[in-house]
Amino acid sequence: MEVRVVTEGPVMQIRIDRPDKKNAITVAMYAAMADALEQAAADDAIRVVTIAGSRDIFTAGNDLKDFQQARPKGPDMPVFRFLRAISGCPKVIIAGVSGAAVGIGTTMLLHCDLVLAAPEASFLMPFVDLGLVPEAASSLLLPRLMGRQAAARHLILGEPFDAATALHYGLVTEIVEADRLDERMRAMADRIAAKPPEAVRLTKQLLTSPESTVAERIALEGSLFEERLRSAETAQALAAFFARGK
Ligand code: COA
Question: What domains can be seen in the chain, in order of their start residue?
């Protein structure tokens, strides 16, 4: 299987594994990743999903042979199922990028909560050079993240950028040596999985919810905060604080 999915306790690990084709993603691979993310969304026991590729390449993007095939269009296509599943996933998603992340390899990161990258990682969105347009809402999210003029540099000029630049843009959370990438992703996933589940879920929901005014957001957070103050999770965390050193 060219997408390997392993679930260990609260962590689902998805690995893109088609090294002979530089991890290019086929229709079947989108379907497998969509299935995994849908399963993670539905399973209360899964708290965190990690997505990784190989050491020398994250993914060369959409399989270009698949682009040549005339396929049925529409929202049920596996690529759209994958994009809906990753962008709407209620669980925390951590990506680990080593090597090149091309096309959807970069744009999928816009839907991950935390992104680790090896110092040698590179990011490239060559849509225009292929006669295509951006996807995965990158034409909306990239300008929001890095500003319109920087987004044009990467979406119109198609210039690649490196891990340090991705960190500067905020697309990458942390740079980690390639050798330690898996270990660091797992440690981060375990840390998150040990946190109060509902507080994590609601915080991700707030971080990914649509634009609103500051006043609206303060009100929304306020009502959730009130509810949380009465939750068992908060009672337990406060009790643990006061029991320190006793
Ligand atoms: N779709 C299908 N096959 C791909 C592919 C893709 N996106 N990217 C690489 N491959 C295949 C190559 O055709 C080649 O297959 P072959 O051994 O049967 O000839 C194999 O993977 C190795 O690729 P190669 O180009 O020789 O590796 P490289 O290390 O020199 O370069 C890349 C790696 C990623 C820079 C280069 O393969 C590339 O630019 N790929 C296309 C990326 C792209 O445009 N993606 C679409 C974005 S929308």
Answer: 3-193 (3.90.226.10), 197-244 (no CATH)
